[in-house]
Each structure stands twice: as structure tokens, then as C-alpha cells.
Specification:
single chain, alpha/beta, TIM Barrel, 2 domains, nine-stranded parallel sheet, 14 helices, binds flavin mononucleotide
Length: about 300
């Protein structure tokens, strides 16, 4: 089974990937949080995107850059830049549910018009120098939309389809509609991966029991709440507090090096998920809530690990 790390904007960037690989070993694959805006044709990745995609920041890891955009020329140009940088695949974000993104006809907004989506994908797949995979939701408002979307995808030469079986209006709420993933797995002429609410071995077992052809599971929030999740799913030992501490320290040191005092805010975002590793997540939250400065944060972390 391939376990990959989900793209999570603001969290699973290159710093997180490296720290995680250092402590828990490399995941089978990683997807970058969405890269946006895409460079104009003739331009280059700049700023944060340039840092995120720098091959040196991703050395030794199987990283697939994810692009967010609806302009085929820019997507193809970006794929060309990525090919020159040594990447082997490009992933398109057809799932971001944010109102601002959808209003611009990007992310899940691209699912609104299946005909336009097919024209876009055919064009991108034909001209992209890299194989193109897609991460998708199953519709905007109703999962019956997925019938037509799956038809569209099946007509395109995709490298892989990663299905997060929620509609845009679900945001991250409600149970994933796994049966829709099952349909894609049966019908699509290319590999299909599953993503959504896999938090423990029982979740993964239930999925693979229902859909035994599953070969690739993408892990998101479950992996943030338990950074040893992929190892556990593969039959390995459970997370220890000593490992969690090592991971925390590696992450905090790397963020501090990259962004100085802003590392505290970054770490607190991660704690929003990682507090679930503790017997009393609310106590963890209370201990960290008021920390602003690095010294306050570091004292709070000491307290948390002695809880
Ligand atoms: C904070 C946050 C940021 C996310 N950023 C991205 C992103 O950049 N690209 C993307 O395709 N999905 C993004 N997602 C969605 C996740 O990749 C994943 O599809 C979703 O969390 C469901 O999987 P999970 O239940 O395993 O977390 C994001 C989700 C969250 C909560």
C-alpha cells in the first residue's frame, strides 16, 4: 500500500515534510500544498513558491507539486518549469472548497462546468511535459454530480485520480461518501487513490475491506494528529511520546530557522491537530493558548510534555 502525505496549505510544506521524514522515515509520496498564483508564461516561481519547490528542499523525497489554477497555458508552463527542476509528475487541485478560490473558478470551482473541465484537462494533458494527476472532490452541492465528473476524468489520460469523496459544500464536515470512491476505483482506466478521514488502523481496514483494490491512501489530518500513522497502518509500532517530542523539536527548530518569531504561530496551528495525541487534549490547548513569544511557547511545551 502506498501511503502519501496530503497537501495541506500552511502545514505540510517542505519544512514539515523534512522534519517528518527525519523522525518517522520517508512517506511513500508527498504532495505539496497548492502552488498559487502560477507564474505567467515566460516567468518563474517566486517567493514562497520558489522556496517550496526548490529541489534541494525536497531532496530524497518523492514529492509531487500541486498546482491551483484554471489557465491551461500557465499550468502547462508551470509543468515545464517543474520538469526542468526534476519533478516527475504534476498534480492539479480540483478540490479546494474555499469560497474565494471557488468564486474565481479555481479548485472545486472547476467542477461546476464538466464540459469546460474536460476541454481544460485534455489540453493540459496533451501539452504538459509531465504526467498529470488530479485531486478532486465529487461535486459542488450533490454527490450525483460525480457521475458526469467521473466520465470526464475517464476520457482524459490522467496519471492518477485522488478522490476526496466530499462535495464542495461539505467543506471538511460529514462522512466521506466512500461509495463514490469505490465507483471511481472500479470504472477509471487509471490508478485511483483514496483520501478522507483515515485516522487509525480500523479506518484503513474498513476501507480496504470494502474496496480491496485500494492501492494508495492519502493521509491528511489523521497524520497530523498521529505522525506515526503511516507506520502504524503498515503494521509497525504505535507513536511514543519521545518520538512526538523529537518531531516537535525538529519542526520547531526548522520553522524558527526559516521564519524566526512566526514559528510560534505555525507550531500552534500544528498543535490544533497534535493535541489529540494526549490523554487530555483540552489541557494541552489551555497550556499553549496564550503563548505568543518564543520563551512563553517553549515553557508551555515543557509543561505539555510533562502532563
Ligand atoms: C488546513 C488544510 C489545508 C489544506 N490544503 C490543501 C491543499 O493545499 N491542497 C489540497 O488539495 N487539499 C488541501 N486540503 C485538503 C486535504 O488535502 C485533504 O483532502 C482533507 O483534509 C481530507 O483528508 P483528511 O481527512 O485525511 O484530512 C487542506 C485541508 C486542510 C484542513
Amino acid at each position: 500500500m502506498l501511503y502519501s502525505m496530503a497537501p495541506m496549505e500552511g502545514i505540510t510544506g517542505s519544512v514539515f515534510r523534512r522534519a517528518h521524514a527525519e523522525v518517522f522515515g520517508a512517506m511513500g509520496r508527498y504532495y505539496t500544498p497548492f502552488v498559487s498564483p502560477l507564474p505567467k508564461v515566460g516567468g518563474h516561481f517566486v517567493g514562497r513558491n520558489k522556496r517550496e519547490l526548490d529541489p534541494a528542499a525536497n531532496a530524497g523525497l518523492d514529492v509531487v507539486p500541486q498546482l491551483l489554477g484554471n489557465d491551461a497555458d500557465r499550468v502547462v508552463w508551470a509543468a515545464g518549469l517543474l520538469a526542468q527542476m526534476g519533478y516527475k509528475e504534476v498534480n492539479l487541485n480540483l478540490g479546494c472548497p474555499s469560497g474565494a478560490v471557488v468564486a474565481k473558478g479555481k479548485g472545486a470551482g472547476m467542477l461546476r462546468d464538466p464540459h469546460a473541465l474536460e476541454a481544460f484537462l485534455q489540453d493540459v494533458c496533451e501539452r504538459s511535459p509531465l504526467p498529470v494527476s488530479v485531486k478532486t472532490r465529487i461535486g459542488i452541492a450533490d454527490d450525483s454530480e460525480f457521475d458526469e465528473l467521473l466520465d470526464v476524468y475517464s476520457h482524459c489520460p490522467l496519471a492518477e485520480l485522488i478522490v476526496h469523496p466530499r462535495v464542495q459544500k461539505d467543506l471538511y464536515r460529514g462522512a466521506p461518501r466512500q461509495a463514490r470512491y469505490g465507483e471511481a476505483l472500479e470504472q477509471a482506466p487509471f490508478p485511483v487513490a483514496y483520501n478522507g478521514d483515515i485516522r487509525c488502523a480500523a479506518d484503513a481496514e474498513s476501507l480496504t475491506k470494502k474496496y480491496p483494490r485500494t492501492r494508495h491512501i492519502m493521509l491528511g489530518r489523521g497524520l497530523l494528529a498521529n505522525p506515526a500513522l503511516a507506520r502504524e497502518l503498515a503494521g509497525g509500532p504505535a507513536l511514543t511520546m519521545a518520538e512526538l517530542r523529537r518531531f516537535h523539536d525538529a519542526l520547531y527548530d526548522a520553522y524558527t530557522e526559516q521564519m524566526g518569531g512566526n514559528a510560534v504561530a505555525r507550531m500552534k496551528e500544528w498543535w490544533g491537530y497534535a493535541e489529540g495525541c494526549f490523554a487530555d487534549p483540552k489541557a494541552v490547548h489551555r497550556a499553549l493558548r496564550k503563548a505568543r513569544r518564543a520563551d512563553e511557547y517553549e515553557a508551555a511545551v515543557e509543561k505539555v510534555f510533562s502532563l
